[in-house]
Amino acid sequence: MRNSPRADQALCAGAAPTPLTSVGPAAAGTGTFAYQWESSTDNGATWTAIAGATGATYAPGPLSATTQFRRRVASGAGSCAAAVSGVVVVRVTPLVTAGGIGANQTVCAGAPVAPLSSQTGAGGGNGTYAYQWQRSADNVVWTDIAGATSP
Description:
- This protein has 151 residues and is mainly beta.
- The protein has no helices and 10 strands.
- The strands form 3 sheets. Strands 1, 2, 3, 4, 5 and 6 form a 6-stranded mixed beta sheet that branches. Strands 7-8 form a two-stranded antiparallel ribbon.
């Protein structure tokens, strides 16, 4: 009766993974198959049945943390009549936060502006950040500043 859901997925926090389906149908056993999808957010240490997820496929909603999924299938009665699929891991990358920059400045025309710098660092994502400073005269249209790529 063992079969496995399709491949692992990677997505950004708040996005929904593509539906989980099997690479093949459940087989053997007796009678009809009963399915129950389960999830784990602690690397498989504990598994929780997902309420209402009793079909051959399952479409998880938006996720905020890396989650593992598996499908339990039963057919007939007794301990030999149940099996668990392989595990699909949906890796969730936390959303990137921009951090903060220095305060507003008021200067006279032609006077130099104090250097702008990050006051708090970027966060989230995968921990590797690329910076690009931009400018705008109207707070609507923003243009990259050539060469301004440091924090």
